[in-house]
Design goal:
This protein is α/β, with parallel strands linked by helices. It folds into two domains: 3-110 and 208-244, 3-Layer(aba) Sandwich (Rossmann fold); 112-204, Dihydrodipicolinate Reductase, domain 2 (2-Layer Sandwich), CATH 3.30.360.10. It has seven helices and ten strands. A six-stranded parallel β-sheet has the order 2-1-3-4-5-10, with helices on both faces. A hairpin with a 4-residue loop joins strand 8 (187-193) and strand 9. Helix 1 crosses helix 6 (209-223), helix 2 (64-73) runs parallel beside helix 3 and helix 4 (112-129) packs parallel to helix 5. The longest helix has 18 residues, at 112-129. The radius of gyration is 19 Å and the shape is elongated.
Length: 249
Amino acid sequence: MHSITIFGNGGLGRAVEIAVLERARRSGRSSEVLVLGRPPSGRHEPADLGHPDLVVEASRPDAVVANLGAALEAGARRFIVATTGWADDRSRVERLLRESGAAAVAAPNFSLGVVLFGRLVETAAELFGSVEAFDPYLLEWHRRGKRDRPSGTAIDLARRIADRHPRLSSPGDLEVVSVRAGSSPGMHLVGFDAAGETVELRLTARDRSAYAAGILAGADWLERGPREPGLHAFDLVVDELIARHPIAA
């Protein structure tokens, strides 16, 4: 990575900027980082973006299509889409990328821990779903200013639970509670409750550095390409990381 444009100057965008510059400092490899907030006109002009080797989308769901379109016009062909709440535009984004020969890694959460947590949740849903006494539930807590409710991560976890739980026909059958208060960067709790006991799996983010690290891993995966044009899941990146660096017992 040499030139990186980040759409979104909020907490996540700034965390990615810090991670990129810190890695450049450690490696001795220079990186140019451009962090862009929301433009007054509502749309970024391609001429203002330079020629980025990588674009990180971390802004707002209603800006994803326009931001990616401007970056494609500027010549960008590698993307990380870390914004949530744009599911309705997914087919449009996929089409833009494919028509331009561009590839993107997209995920509701770029934490390595979240991906592995999701796989634990799938196994737990199968195990506890086989015992009728246990009822599943999901609780997520984010900062007061987070707009989407439930979060993209909670939606993904609910899907994973419903897919593996024999007594749930869809994510809508699962009890999901969203809390928006304070400044929590993110907490997700999956529980299974019975009359005499409760079992819970919890993932708590302390700050956004875990998300930034995952975004850099996604960027490295794209750079090691070439990758097929279109959208790619972060799970593919994690699978490759696990294969290259096995987790010690």
